[in-house]
Design brief:
With 801 residues, this protein is an alpha/beta fold. The protein is built from 28 helices and 24 strands. The protein has a domain of 87 residues: formyl-coa transferase, domain 3, CATH 3.30.1540. Helix content is 33%, strand content 13%.
Amino acid sequence: MPESGAPLSGWVVVDLSTGIAGGYCTKILADGGAEVLKIEPPAGDPLRRWSASGAHIAEGHDGALFQFLAASKRSIVADPAQPIDVEGLRAILDGADAVVWTPGSPLVELPSLRPAAIVRDHPHLTVTAITPFGLEGPWCDRAATEFTLQAWSGGMVGLGRGDPERAPVFVGGQVGDWLAGTFAAVGTMVARMRGNESGEIVDVSVLESVALCLTYYPVSYVDALGRPFRSKRSVVTPGVAMAKDGMIGVGVGTGQQWLDFCSMVGQPDWMEDKSLFRERGHLAPVIDQWFADHTVDEIRDLAAAFRLPHAVIANGANLPHLDHFEARQAFGPDPTGRFLQPSPPFRMRPARLRAPAPAPVLGAHVAGAALRRNPASKGDEGGGGTALPFSGLRVLDMTAFWAGPVCTHVLAMLGAEVIHLESTNRLDGTRMLGAPMSEEQWWERSPIFSGINTNKKSLTLDFRSEAGMDVLRRLMATTDIVVENFTPRVLDQAGLSFEALRAIRDDIILVRMPGFGLDGPWRDNAAFAYTIEDASGLTWMTGHADQKPLEPYCIGDPNAGMHALVGLLLALEHRRRTGEGVFVESAMVDAAINITAEQVIEYSAYGALLQRAGNRGPTAAPQNLYRTAGMDERGRRDRWVALAVETDDQWEALVEALGRPGWATSAALCTARGRFERHNLIDRELEAWCEPRTAEEVVDRLWPAGVPVAVVTQPHHQGELPQLQARRYFETVDHPVSGSARHSTLPMRFSSGPDRLHRRHAPLLGEHNGEILAGLGLSASEIADLEAEGVIGRAPAERAS
């Protein structure tokens, strides 16, 4: 397929953004074939001069990260002070299909270039706005950085991550911006599929992006079960370990994996004490010594033999050279040959992405370069202008746990008929994360399963049997999209290749979400969020500098799900244009190495290895957590505020709010460089100032003055944040077994609706067996026979009677 036929070719996107979030959103669209016109003020996007390591960027040259994000785009300079330039920009908008907008540029400070004004003046446009808190709500104009947003979200304490005797730590690498950019790309394409010619605002919140991806449905969990999922921080054992010759992560997520781990490290006695599966931190010295006595390769071989989740702790230096990534050609040179960059996060056929062209020189193009827009046809896929963009699509959801279901959940919330497939012999693993198995219908009481599966239907089907496989094939003949995240061998052994599915339905879309891909040395390795984080550099950037890194324990899954959704949406667009089915391979680790791209780019471009630094970071000084007065809900002195100063104006606001103390008025602190160099001094003074005050007192004093600051919030208190309440980020869902609970929605709002995303509770196990099978033409007696034979059911097999 020629590059001109990439799924989004002919679509014109105006990029009015600065920074990573907008840059990544528009990179995704450009890779998909869209013509992206980057509109910049005369000084250019500040990202052109950015290097996370502080590497020198020569005058007239652009930073490597900018070149990665701006590949294939055009650059047009518009001076907001020149009426002729502003009028030229209006003409560009008239010929465009969509706009991606962030605050921070002198251009978007013009009243006529605010999102609502753009849609008012150009009513055919989709405008995707990415802001810290969203465009509306009581905090919408408050100062924030990603660091403070992680604190508000609960993501800093996340799933109990970190040493309880130290300050919590944020997830490094500016992940919130990358995540928000991914959601923005999805939102922009969803609006395109709606085919709404009356204009639309897609309102993306970075706070909500990190709240969804750095925590694990904590509000739903506490509502349903009356207790937090995890509230006490700890260092996972086993987890990240120092081997003889490097670092490796080995995880234990199930009881069987714990037993296998005990065998692997030569401690069979541990298997006798069942309590050790939950409480084994005191075994760390023995476990650490075992790791220290073995090489990384020895541990990898043993862990693979015992089928334990494991991965090398990767970073910018070693990532491209790990055997798996070399075999899959996961990294390659940028279009100029200056540095290495990751390949796209998914592979498609017969649809193809556009090969990247070099990033544009500032102002390399003129306003006349605007193209005639090519709006999507209405009604060919999805809702065709209705409030539910995916209504009319049938999706077979053969996924489990988090990564796969988060992809299909977005489709279900936006109108698709999503059939979640399970077997009574093999339930979705998230059904286990709830009430103890001694409770009646325990499998229906998981707030995690409930939170990620609303609006879906449930079909139980054991397709290992001939009868089950016959039903599955009949179902696939009625299905537009199949999404699966089994280990690679499952579909292969079942004979359900893309070619086999196309023989059933020629225009079917198959999305496969293997952990490490369908080929390569790690193909069959077990993949959990933490192993993906280990293998991609996410772990490397998280933790205190003087300790081993910490696994975020979360991002690997939802990030993979959203990137798979991007590939799926591009496949739908290809099918709309050509009528062809599409195969999408969206490996979890490929999605992760794209949002950690900066590590490999910095190392290959400048020889700089980015490192974790506790709660400090390259974008702000001071940036840290400071302990405050008062006790947490466990009676510990463990309450903190997050503070980050990114600009000289914010520093001056902080100095004023503190009452202009002598130490803060030093001329040496008036510049960012001076503050970075004297960070220890600033930390000592801020620690002393914060310690006698409560977290709320600190925020009430500093935030109204314009200082980015936040309370380090426990995840299960997300629902109490006024901003999330005002934006109706949580919706209450009534469940017939587990009762009522608040469920998180999406980190984006569509001005064309829907106003409510959770329209029905998560399905009961096998709840829709009869409805779905009757729709396939099976008689009542045939359905009864399938149930009698155990092919379908409404309860786990050992409980069925």
